[in-house]
Design brief:
- This protein has two helices and eight strands.
- With 185 residues, it is α+β, with helices and mostly antiparallel strands.
- The protein has one domain.
- A five-stranded mixed sheet has the order 4-5-6-7-8, covered by helices on one side. It has a three-stranded antiparallel sheet with strand order 1-2-3.
- A hairpin with a 4-residue loop joins β7 and β8.
- The N and C termini lie far apart (91 Å).
- The relative contact order is 0.13.
Length: 185
């Protein structure tokens, strides 16, 4: 005689218990607290990289413009020198030392000088012609990536809008371009 056991086999439970779920949530919370500062630091590193790359491109543009001046003029100031293309937008004014000083279609000057925030903006716009790197004066409420400041004598500082501690500085007296890459200073 074959008897079947009246006892049923234990049921298999699938899924997580409430305690296991709580433990997993706590572990994920701890990992998030530990990882969040690292991701925040990556964002800061990305901003530093953007400003470093922009500063390098700006320096290359300044050097290229100076080279054009050296080949076409050689010494002394130059007004409306075609530098980046054949259109008026690519013309630039150079100071006595042959460094970009401004860009205007009018107001001929015997010896152009970089001496106000509009000059700083005009140099930036001409160097980055066709690119989407936007700039405005530091007092402007326009949403731009960089804010231009004139620094006496004949210098510009372009502050990065996402972190005003990051900046690019240009000295038109000697063509030097420096990048401040310290986001905390």
């Amino acid at each position: 005689m074959n008897h079947r056991s009246c006892l049923s086999s234990p049921k298999r439970h699938t899924g997580f218990t409430l305690i296991e779920l709580v433990v997993v949530i706590i572990i994920l919370g701890i990992l998030a607290v530990v990882a969040l500062p690292k991701f925040m630091n990556l964002s800061e590193d990305a901003h530093v990289a953007v400003v470093s790359g922009t500063g390098g491109a700006f320096k290359s543009g300044i050097n290229l413009a100076h080279s054009v001046w050296a080949v076409r003029v050689g010494s002394g100031p130059a007004e409306n020198l075609p530098t980046f293309g054949d259109s008026e937008a690519g013309e630039m004014d150079f100071n006595d030392a042959g460094w970009p000083a401004q860009h205007y279609f009018t107001d001929d000057e015997v010896s152009p000088k970089l001496d106000n925030v509009d000059d700083c903006i005009s140099v930036w716009v001409t160097i980055f012609a066709g690119d989407d790197l936007t700039v405005s004066s530091s007092t402007s409420t326009d949403e731009t990536e960089y804010k231009a400041n004139y620094i006496p004598l004949h210098q510009c500082r372009y502050d990065y809008a996402d972190n005003l501690n990051l900046s690019i500085s240009y000295d038109s007296r000697n063509g030097s371009v420096t990048v401040d890459k310290d986001p905390s200073n």
